[in-house]
Amino acid sequence: QVELVESGGGSVQAGNSLTLSCTTSDRIFRNIVMAWFRQAPGKEREFVAVISRLSRTIVVDDSVKGRFTISRRNDDQRLFLHMTNLKSEDTATYFCAAAKDNQVRTTAQGFPYWGRGTQVTVFS
User: What pLDDT digit, counting tens, does each position of 19-50 carry?
Assistant: First the structure.
């Protein structure tokens, strides 16, 4: 029912920027909360940012605060993660997640729907 597809990953030199996107075909896109998580090799999946249905509530993890911006464009059902000043520690697979309500969550277990991820590699 809720299908998420991430795109925009790649290899980027440290200090540069990259924008990830997530597309959903769900008909109630305006009524779902969406988030970004990431998982590095050998580590658990960790929270990055979450945004409410109409972008009125945004929570960004301290590890990326000031560098990453989450946004959504409901007209064409897209979620974005704008990443700037990328660091080596940002290297991970980035996942788009969604829940069919407008309750902001910061834990992976709270999101029933997930994309397959897009790889971001930051090199120095």
Answer: 999 998 766 556 689 999 999 999 999 999 99
62 to 69, 87, 95, 102, 110: CA distances (angstroms): 12, 14, 18, 22, 20
What is the per-residue DSSP string for 36-53?
EEEE-TTS--EEEEEE-T
What is the residue type of 90? D
Phi, psi of 48 (to 5 degrees): -115, -60
Q: Is 42 left (phi over 0), alpha (psi -120 to 50) or beta?
A: left
pLDDT in tens, 60-84: 999 999 999 999 998 888 999 999 9
Q: Which residues 6+ apart lie within 8 Å of 110 measured at CB?
A: 99
